[in-house]
Amino acid sequence: MNRAELLQTSERYGTPLYLYDLAEVRDRANELLAALPGGTSLLYSLKANPLLPVVAELRGVGCGAEVSSLGELDVAVAAGFRAADVLYTGPGKSRGEIDAAIARGAELFSCESETELDRLGAAAADAGRRVRVLLRLQPGDRPASGLSMADGRQFGLTATEAVRAWPAAAESVELLGFHVYLGSQLGTVEHLLTGFTCAKAVVDEVVAGTGVPPRIVDLGGGFPWPYAAEGVGCDLIGLREGLTDLLSDWAESAPRVWFETGRRPTAAAGTLLTTVIDVKERESGVVVVVDAGINVLGGMAGLGRVLRLNTTVDNLSAADDRPEVAVDVVGPLCTPLDRVAARTPARKPAPGDVLRVHNVGAYGATASLTAFLSRPGPLELVVDGDEEVGAWRIDARAVPVTG
Ligand SMILES: *Cc1c(COP(=O)(O)O)cnc(C)c1O
Questions:
Q1: Sorting pLDDT into bands at 50, 70 and 90, what band is 305?
Q2: Which of 63, 111, 234, 334 is catalytic?
Q3: Radius of gyration over alpha carbons of the chain, in Å?
């Protein structure tokens, strides 16, 4: 959409408004699929954006699905995935959650610990069903080369635990292989390849210990895209060749290889439109109060632990010749933490102007502090090019469960 169309849309629906374009989802997904070696699969991590038409679109281009809650499983099934094909992940699956997932038809789980292996085996036996399991492995030592990844020590089994657990586990569940996830936002093809090499190494270490070749290896992802700032993720030139080379080592055992992505196909598809409520000009700078705070954008700031303040905004209402100033953009919540952008340049905002935030199709609406301050959730409008698909609104009010 061009600037005029975006402004029209913000008037028609009001702000704060998330706008997702399925055409962009398709393009970004196809681009990534083309950069992966033939014969491998790509799972979409619903965590990034669980809105039904987005998930259905990714199924349409050939992605699988990776979920980590019953809610995400329900969306995946509604989007057309078979529950049995969905990879169910997450570090804290209770017996109740596992039973409920199995009851919905799930049978493929990423297993996080020896305790969980017992739990999965017992749940399967009691349900009279089989479960298929990938053991999630902790990557070993981090590669030195500038990879910045979240501390993942709470996830998965160590290689030693996995080797120890394998024989007994193979009796209670169908052990298919391994799942390794190094982290998000591996910024370049070189970083991605280093990450996948590291993931492969821990798999090889466990296989050397068990002597059993895996049938499936999920090597994770980390395919990058900027969050809430203009720009694009690294190009993927050389990824396919690098991965083909890496995987040629497994040519003989020939496990099926999977990758995962959340933000890469969804981030660029999402735009946030927000209206300027107030502007305060101070010696220390211009403070712009908008109607989208951390309840709408980035309580998690793209899975950083703290709000990142590198957001950029684009003033759609201001003529190009309006001077640029550095602005602090804050939301409507009664807390000094409600800051959306700091010291970012924008054509000088005035009350009523509509600002655009780019690249918020992933970890936007659902990764925010939606219930904080009891404001209505943002509207989420989905289009496919020129065609409108539908609108949704997250409702996070407390509902009574007793009394
Ligand atoms: C969060 C997560 C993803 C998706 O990460 P992106 O950076 O959005 O691609 C994939 N796999 C696992 C296990 C995750 O936790």
A1: very low
A2: 334
A3: 22
Cα(37) to ligand 1 centroid in Å equals 20
| Ligand 1 surroundings by CB, under 6 angstroms | 45, 47-48, 66, 89, 181, 184, 220-221, 223, 260-264, 362
Separation of 45 CA from ligand 1 center, angstroms? 6
Nearest CA to ligand 1 atom 7: 184
| CA within 13 Å, CB half, 139 | 23
| Domains annotated on the chain, with CATH | 3-16+269-393 (2.40.37.10), 22-265 (3.20.20.10)
Average pLDDT over residues 95-106: 98
DSSP 8-state class, residue 227: S
Ligand 1 centroid to 112 CA: how many Å? 15
Which pLDDT tens digit goes with each residue over 338-350? Answer: 888 889 999 999 9
Q: What is the residue with the minimal CA distance to atom 4 of ligand 1? A: 262
Hunting for tokens 């309006």 — which residue is that? 322
Tokens in use for 281? 């000009």
Distance of CA 82 to the CA centre of its chain: 21
CA dist 318 to 10, 11, 42, 212, 355, Å? 15, 16, 41, 63, 9
Which among 336, 274, 347, 303 has a CA at the least distance from the CA of 152? 303
Question: With bands split at pLDDT 50, 70 and 90, how would you rate the model's confidence at 403?
Answer: confident
Active site residue 334: yes
8 A C-beta contact, residue 200 and residue 160: no
Would you list the DSSP string of 37-83?
-TT-EEEEEGGG---HHHHHHHHHTT-EEEESSHHHHHHHHHTT--G
For the entire predicted model, the pTM comes to: 0.95
